[in-house]
Amino acid sequence: MIRKIRKYEGWFGATGAVCIAVGLYFGLAASPPDSYQGEVVRIMYVHVPFASTSMTAYGVLTVASLWYLWKRDPLIDNLAHASAGIGVFFTSGALYTGSIWGKPTWNTWWTWDARLVSFTILLLILIGYLMLRTFIEDKERESRYAAILAIVGAVDLPIVHFSVEWWRTLHQPLSISQRGVAIAGVMLYPLILMSVGFYLLFTYMVGVRTQMLYLKQLLEAKKGRLLGEVHL
Amino acid sequence: MKGFYLRWTGLLLVGIWIVAVGAQYYYREVRPLTPEQVAREHPAGSVRMIGMVEAGSMVKEAASTQIQLSLIGNGQRIPVVYEGNDQDSLRDIKTLVVVGRWDNTRQRFMAQKINLIPNYGFITAAYLVMIPMALFLFVMERRVRLLYNEIKLSKIYEPEVGGL
Amino acid sequence: MSKGKKIGLVFSILVIAGGLFYLGLGQFGKNLVYFFTPSEVIGFNQDYYGKKIRVGGMVVQGSMQVVPNTLKISFRLTDGAATIPVDFEGIPPDLFKEGKGAVVEGFWDTQKRFHSNLIMAKHSEDYMPIEMKQAGIQFPKKDLLKTLQQ
Question: Cβ separation of C120 and A38 shorter than 8 Å?
Answer without folding.
Answer: no
